[in-house]
């Protein structure tokens, strides 16, 4: 791939933050200007800092579909300004069958016959090398994920967010900029129909409440909320264990594969959220309850939820740093056992003997489903993956050290970041914290961050904002200071190019790729080629009789 200097120029829509979102601005034909990705841009954007956009393949899987007036009216009952696509089935099938999953690509999304936006994407990994899928009946499932996972940005918007999960027969996309969270998801019950909509335009917001009580929470002494932390020399790779309740299993046709595909889509998207915060997650193990006796079966309030979560937490989960239970109990949102209790079960967390895993749970997690046609003969509808993504990441955010943004814990003076949760508490007749001034509530105009309750007000949660400055810095600080979480070094050697004979037993390693041109290995030597996210072999590479050749992928990035 052609490399250019440290910056990349590309188009950026010119706009002021108004009621218009990305789709509407593009449809109105806004002009473009150049923008740059710099070392100050988000981690997702910095993937492309040395990439020449002209060398990136462009994928165009969607074509606009004309819908009649009745269909448009049905759509408007649930969401404004939605767009219906047909998946280009033959092109998509050729792509997935041939496994043409390039390391980087542009994914084109049309908004009308003349305008579109592009997602700038890089392929990623989410499964630990020792990943296991098991069931409550004791069986281990041979699961090989199909398709590919990508994340990146909306082209021209370095601080945006995009995540794409591709399987053998479908694609799911979430992207976000300051004016909304954009979803492209399959219309259930149809044949290859997809819908594009802005989550902010939904007519009805799913309900969610979090059982974590952060009243009186005090930030750690070693954390300065006025200083935004950045990526350090040592990065923590957090291993995640997930249990899935019986209801989600039955909702997916009693299929362990379909259930695991659902979990994988959700986890892939959460990896993108945390990667934007310079935090690496890997999925270590998944247990699916295929029997109707899961740990939270029959609970109906937060008190029972909390008791059961403690019992479940003390089961212990080897090989993971955090255990996350997801389920569908109606009326219960999410809960974490303690805030930032990594490796410290005796200090306000859970003491379960030798268990070094932190725990959280999110219920009501199976993707909300909005019907387009309420008749008994049709099941047309679409899901809201942005909602479950928020809930899933919100509870992990507590375990990783962050209270809610409406807690009186921030800014270095025990005040709040926003008042979304406090306004909701006031409207429900619940108590409000001392830092809350009801006559002058702090409500962010463009949406809240992941640890906020802004979905309960007139704004929403904006995924492009991630966890926000202070919560994000706090989470990175807690993870980097937690001794029980695995580490790996970020520093990697430079790329080495070998163009002739390899006559050494040394290790050839590189950050991103090893380029080998027309090279041979002399007999009797055993060099090791160690790479990062990929190792590419070019030219007429050969190894003569008697030579041993190895390539080791270390995960260095």
Task: Summarize the structure in words.
The chain is α/β, with parallel strands linked by helices. It has ten helices and 29 strands. The strands form seven sheets. It has a ten-stranded mixed sheet. The radius of gyration is 24 Å and the shape is globular.
The largest sheet has its strands arranged as 3-6-7-10-11-12-13-14-5-4
Helix content: 10-25%
Shape annotation: globular
CA radius of gyration is 24 Å
What are the key terms here?
single chain; 557 residues; alpha/beta; ten-stranded mixed sheet; eight-stranded mixed sheet; 29 strands; 18% helix; 26% strand; disordered N terminus; disordered C terminus
How would you briefly describe this protein structure?
With 557 residues, the chain is of the alpha/beta class.
């Amino acid at each position: 791939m052609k490399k250019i200097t440290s910056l990349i120029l590309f188009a950026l829509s010119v706009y002021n933050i108004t009621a218009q979102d990305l789709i509407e601005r593009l449809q109105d034909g806004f002009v473009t200007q150049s923008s740059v990705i710099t070392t100050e841009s988000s981690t997702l954007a910095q993937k492309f800092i040395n990439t020449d956009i002209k060398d990136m393949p462009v994928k165009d899987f969607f074509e606009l579909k004309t819908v009649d007036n009745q269909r448009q009216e049905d759509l408007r009952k649930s969401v404004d300004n939605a767009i219906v696509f047909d998946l280009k089935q033959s092109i998509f099938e050729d792509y997935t069958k041939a496994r043409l999953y390039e390391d980087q690509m542009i994914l084109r999304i049309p908004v009308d016959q003349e305008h579109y936006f592009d997602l700038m994407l890089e392929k990623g990994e989410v499964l630990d090398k020792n990943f296991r899928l098991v069931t409550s009946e004791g069986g281990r499932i041979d699961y090989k994920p199909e398709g590919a996972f990508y994340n990146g940005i909306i082209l021209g918007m370095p601080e945006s967010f995009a995540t794409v999960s591709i399987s053998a027969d479908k694609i799911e996309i979430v992207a976000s900029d300051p004016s909304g969270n954009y979803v492209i998801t399959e219309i259930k019950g149809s044949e290859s129909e997809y819908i594009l909509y802005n989550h902010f335009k939904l007519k009805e917001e799913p309900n969610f409440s979090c059982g974590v009580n952060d009243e009186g929470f005090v930030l750690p002494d070693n954390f300065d909320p006025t200083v935004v932390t950045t990526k350090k020399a040592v990065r923590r790779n957090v291993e995640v264990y997930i249990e899935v309740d019986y209801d989600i299993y039955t909702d997916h046709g009693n299929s362990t594969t379909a259930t695991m595909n659902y979990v994988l889509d959700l986890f892939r998207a959460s990896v993108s959220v945390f990667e934007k915060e310079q935090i690496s997650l890997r999925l270590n193990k998944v247990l699916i309850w295929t029997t109707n006796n899961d740990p939270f079966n029959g609970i109906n309030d937060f008190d029972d939820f909390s008791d059961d979560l403690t019992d479940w937490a003390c089961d212990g989960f080897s090989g993971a740093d955090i255990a996350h239970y997801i389920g569908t109990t109606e009326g219960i949102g999410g809960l974490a056992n303690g805030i930032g209790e990594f490796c410290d079960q005796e200090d306000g967390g859970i003491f379960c003997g030798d268990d070094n895993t932190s725990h959280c749970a999110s219920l009501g997690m199976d993707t909300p489903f909005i019907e387009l046609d309420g008749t008994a003969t049709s099941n047309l509808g679409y899901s809201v993956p942005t909602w479950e993504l928020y809930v899933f990441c919100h509870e992990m955010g507590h375990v990783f050290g962050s209270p809610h943004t409406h807690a009186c814990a921030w800014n270095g003076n025990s005040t709040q970041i926003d008042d979304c949760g406090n306004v909701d508490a006031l409207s429900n007749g619940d108590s409000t914290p001392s830092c809350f001034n009801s006559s002058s509530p702090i409500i962010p105009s463009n949406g809240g961050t992941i640890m906020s309750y802004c979905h309960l007000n007139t704004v929403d949660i904006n995924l492009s904002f991630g966890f926000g400055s202070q919560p994000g810095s706090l989470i990175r600080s807690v993870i980097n200071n937690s001794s029980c979480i695995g580490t790996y070094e970020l520093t990697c050697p430079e790329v080495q190019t070998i163009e002739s004979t390899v006559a050494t037993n040394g290790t050839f390693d590189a950050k991103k790729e090893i380029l080998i041109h027309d090279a041979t290995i002399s007999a009797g030597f055993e060099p090791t080629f160690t790479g990062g996210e990929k190792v590419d072999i070019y030219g007429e590479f050969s190894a003569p009789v008697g030579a041993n050749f190895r390539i080791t992928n270390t995960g260095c990035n």
